[in-house]
From TrEMBL:
This is PadR family transcriptional regulator. SUPFAM superfamilies: Winged helix' DNA-binding domain (SSF46785). It comes from Parafrankia soli. Gene3D superfamilies: Winged helix-like DNA-binding domain superfamily/Winged helix DNA-binding domain (1.10.10.10). It holds the Pfam family PadR.
Length: 103
């Protein structure tokens, strides 16, 4: 799984967000390293929705134009958990291997 996809799914972990909320959450989680453009995000959300990983969760409006909310599906949450475990295992392996340097 590519990092932007992982971060989009992680952004939706706590609950539904609209596109701008996802963009800001991804930027914050990555400490500014990953900055999604709107076109990139909405293309990814369409793909993730087609794959059953995210779902449309209604529109909200705070006086401005309505914003589409998206939520993580159970399938998306399961995949995110699996990917997080895989990344954690790989990181643990790398740290252990680094500990063997010079021995």
């Amino acid at each position: 799984m590519r990092e932007p996809t992982f971060l989009i799914l992680a952004a939706l972990g706590p609950g539904p967000l609209h596109g701008y909320g996802v963009i800001k959450a991804v930027e914050e989680m990555s400490q500014g390293r990953v900055r999604l453009r709107a076109g990139t995000l909405y293309g990814a959300l369409e793909r993730l929705e087609a794959d059953g990983l995210v779902a449309f969760d209604g529109e909200v409006s705070d006086g401005g134009p309505p914003r589409r909310n998206y939520r993580l599906t159970d399938t998306g949450a399961d995949l995110l958990a699996q990917e997080a475990a895989r990344l954690r295992a790989n990181a643990d392996l790398a740290v252990a291997r680094l500990g063997l340097r010079g021995t």
